[in-house]
Specification:
The structure is a single chain. The protein has one helix at residues 53-69, and strands spanning 8-12, 15-20, 23-33, 36-44. A four-stranded antiparallel β-sheet has the order 1-2-3-4, with helices on one face. It has one helix and four strands. Strand 2 and strand 3 (23-33) form a beta hairpin. The chain is of the alpha+beta class.
């Protein structure tokens, strides 16, 4: 069993995008309100689902949030 495909996660205003071979295959949106960041919406292209990309995307987004703002709080 192999792991998820090699990917890159980039931050854009209000969202993180996950790329495979430079092509966007999904994103998660975020909203900042004071010291709280929420991630209300995550999408992975239908033909890329089931490969662990959503988990990898959210993990990278949370890691970046922690690095920039401290530990995220649960709503």
């Amino acid at each position: 069993m192999s792991g998820p495909p090699q990917h890159t996660v980039i931050e854009q205003p209000g969202r993180y995008q996950i790329l495979i071979d430079g092509l966007a295959v999904g994103f998660t949106e975020y909203h900042d309100e004071g010291d709280r960041r929420t991630f209300p919406h995550t999408v992975i292209d239908e033909d890329q689902r089931g490969q662990g990309l959503a988990s990898a995307l959210i993990r990278a987004a949370l890691d970046a949030t922690r690095a920039a703002h401290g530990s995220p709080r649960r709503a």
